[in-house]
Amino acid sequence: MPRRSAPQYELFYWPGLQGRGEFVRLAFEAAGVPYVDVGRLPAARGGGAGAVARLLEEPGPWLTPLGPPALRYGKVLVAQTAAILQWVAPRLGVVPRDEASRLRAHQIQLTIADLVAEVHDTHHPIAVSLYYEDQKQEAARRAGEFVRERIPMFLGYLDGALDSNPAGRGRWLVGRGMSYVDLSTFQVVAGLRYAFPRAMARRERAVPRLGALHDRVAALPRIAAYLASERRIPFNESGIFRHYPELDLAAPRRRRGP
Amino acid sequence: MPRRSAPQYELFYWPGLQGRGEFVRLAFEAAGVPYVDVGRLPAARGGGAGAVARLLEEPGPWLTPLGPPALRYGKVLVAQTAAILQWVAPRLGVVPRDEASRLRAHQIQLTIADLVAEVHDTHHPIAVSLYYEDQKQEAARRAGEFVRERIPMFLGYLDGALDSNPAGRGRWLVGRGMSYVDLSTFQVVAGLRYAFPRAMARRERAVPRLGALHDRVAALPRIAAYLASERRIPFNESGIFRHYPELDLAAPRRRRGP
């Protein structure tokens, strides 16, 4: 009887943008574990946006995700970026094995997910179904508040998280070495720099350890090779981190607030 | 030597509103397991908003949460609503024990968390730090899109999730019986009805099983007792689900979209 081959890891995400799929890609790339990026395969090989859409539309033997990314491995399908990473990271060796570290990593990742949702809403504050051009006025107002209040808050949280991990000596967020949370932090620092270069140049001064973490991750041999490859989709204005210069301004003064 | 008493479960959440803390409360109430609602204790007994604020401000031997809710149990502190529920549900017996069920539950809960964040942004589309009155115009526009597109999408997801759980026979979302995900679904159905009564009356017709699930949860003896008690804070306009009649309108027509 022929031996059944081991399942492959299949990432389902829209082609053409980094999006939330990038957090999953970085974990595989850092681990050096092969994965199929289904959305970027040709349709003739079962890939493309159509394959991603089918996963979301056709009932399967699993919970149908509301949206990508989703990771399939044999009979397992996991959606929701933070849940995917929580599930796959121990299998990839990009999180310490003990329960306390995994719980810590997941909480940080969920907070990064909150940040990512807010970044998205800086250019889509009214509706994801409308063009940016149809919500530019609201976007300018929301982005101003985001730059003024939320970027410092989230960066401060991540910087503070370094302090609560003595084993990482200010260099890593969970345990003694690199984990998927460091990869995700690299991605949000890179993304915020792309989207809000002026604001970040100012805001990053207060949290130099995050810039150092970004550089440390970018220099990991597998990540450096990935970033230089065609597998790394450049940041662009289809993704979550978009550079609209008009949103990268000094924050408007608040009129009044609680 | 005196035996050291077992730790208590301590929920940290702002007093005066249900908020995200309510999802955690419902799990404890359904399980009949005692917990201390720290924010609602008098300050003289170590409670109140000050105790919640101190947890967020003072570095402890744990990862400082960016915001509440947080659950403390001995040396463990868990923040992020979905992570709290994932951690505590097996201990409370409100999720099946097998890994597949727990993974399924967590994915649904994370999608509910996305819904909750969007509900919040219907009345705060620009900034959490501004009053509703200072973002009413944007709120009307965002709420219109939310009612028209997002409520049907999220309700459709939850309704479809019933189909992908044959063991639940259309009655429960995970496994054969009630889990914390059913409690959270009860809460979002109740909350959406409170915030958007006109819209929900119309939208719920397409998903009658969710209304039945709401009623089934509300009739669980421990939940019925909880809802009738003073421990259940009424919905109000400090919470996530707010009833502003001007936001509960027929959706505006979309101008154009992708």
UniProtKB/TrEMBL annotation, chains A, B:
Q: Which residues form the GST C-terminal domain?
A: 98-235
Q: What is this protein called?
A: Glutathione transferase
Keyword match Cell membrane: no
Q: Report the domain of life of the source organism.
A: Bacteria
> Which regions span the lipid bilayer?
none
Q: What InterPro entries does the record tag this protein with?
A: Glutathione-S-Trfase_C-like (IPR010987), Glutathione-S-Trfase_C_sf (IPR036282), GST_C (IPR004046), GST_superfamily (IPR050213), Thioredoxin-like_sf (IPR036249)
Q: Which organism is it from?
A: Anaeromyxobacter oryzae
Question: PANTHER family, from UniProt?
Answer: GLUTATHIONE S-TRANSFERASE
One GO MF term: transferase activity
